[in-house]
């Protein structure tokens, strides 16, 4: 799903109670994570609030922000960030319908949640009795012909949609001067970001190249990722 200002949501879910949950995953630091999540929450709220909606009916929005580093530098595996008001006794939470959860894979506290996060780092098929649904899903998408086909189609569609959205953003923000160059840069950036996503999902080089991406594009992303290791 795409929003304005070049924000592409990783996963958007609607929970049974009507809450919109945006799940974001970040591998590299330096993202200004706190303000980034503020923007994610406000953009999601605006995108799913119809014109004329009473403020009392604004949808609940939850952001789950999963990182491979401690984004808040507080030594906690999961941190719930909630808007608060200052009182004479300290701070009290304000129920404004927005919740942000920071989770990371570097702080290991031995809990089931911590172990579950560690499994998301694995790219191989596994069997874990504590998480049978995840184990079954990974096995299906990694080992079965039907699962591999669905995965390839999903990633390919995502890559195409990302490139199209990136071009649209550049086209809308660009003006008469330098528009052609801006469109070209937007398309290139969109294709490279799609390759980053596919590599991060564990897709092989052969599979990515079969989706009409060039060896030069793939090598450019690999070189970039290698220099940040």
Structure description:
- The chain is of the alpha/beta class.
- The protein contains 7 helices and 9 strands.
- It has a 5-stranded mixed β-sheet, with helices on one face.
- Helix 1 links the parallel strand 4 and strand 5.
- Helix 3 (132-143) crosses helix 4 (145-173) and helix 5 (179-200) crosses helix 7.
- The radius of gyration is 20 Å and the shape is globular.
- The chain starts with a strand and ends with a helix.
Number of strands: 9
The average pLDDT is 80
SSE run: EEEEHEEEEEHHHHHH
Query: What structural class do you assign from the helix and strand content?
Result: alpha/beta
Q: What's the tally of helices?
A: 7
Fraction of residues in H or I helices: 40-55%
What is the approximate shape? globular
Rg over C-alpha atoms, rounded to the nearest angstrom: 20 Å
Fraction in beta strands: 15-25%
Main sheet: strands, sense, barrel: 5 strands, mixed
Distance between the termini: 29 Å
Q: Spans of 5+ residues with little confidence (pLDDT < 50)?
A: 1-6
Strand order of the largest sheet: 3-4-5-9-6
């Amino acid at each position: 799903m795409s929003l304005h200002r070049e924000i592409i949501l990783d996963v958007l879910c609607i929970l049974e109670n009507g809450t919109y949950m945006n799940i974001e995953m970040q591998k590299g630091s330096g993202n200004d994570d706190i303000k980034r999540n503020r923007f994610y929450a406000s953009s999601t709220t605006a995108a799913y609030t119809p014109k004329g909606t009473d403020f009392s009916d604004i949808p609940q929005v939850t952001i789950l922000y999963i990182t491979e580093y401690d984004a808040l530098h507080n030594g906690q595996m999961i941190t719930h960030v909630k808007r608060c008001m200052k009182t004479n006794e300290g701070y009290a939470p304000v129920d404004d319908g927005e919740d942000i959860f920071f989770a990371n894979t570097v702080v290991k506290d031995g809990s089931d949640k911590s172990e579950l996060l560690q499994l998301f780092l694995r790219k191989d098929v596994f069997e874990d009795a504590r998480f049978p649904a995840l184990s079954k899903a990974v096995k299906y998408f990694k080992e079965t012909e039907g699962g591999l086909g669905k995965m390839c189609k999903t990633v390919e569609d995502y890559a195409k949609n990302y490139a199209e959205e990136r071009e649209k953003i550049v086209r809308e923000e660009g003006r008469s001067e330098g528009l052609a160059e801006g469109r070209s840069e937007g398309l290139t950036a969109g294709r490279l970001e799609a390759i980053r996503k596919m590599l991060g999902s564990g897709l092989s080089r052969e599979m990515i190249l079969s989706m009409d991406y060039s060896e030069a594009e793939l090598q450019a992303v690999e070189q970039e990722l290698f220099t940040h290791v």
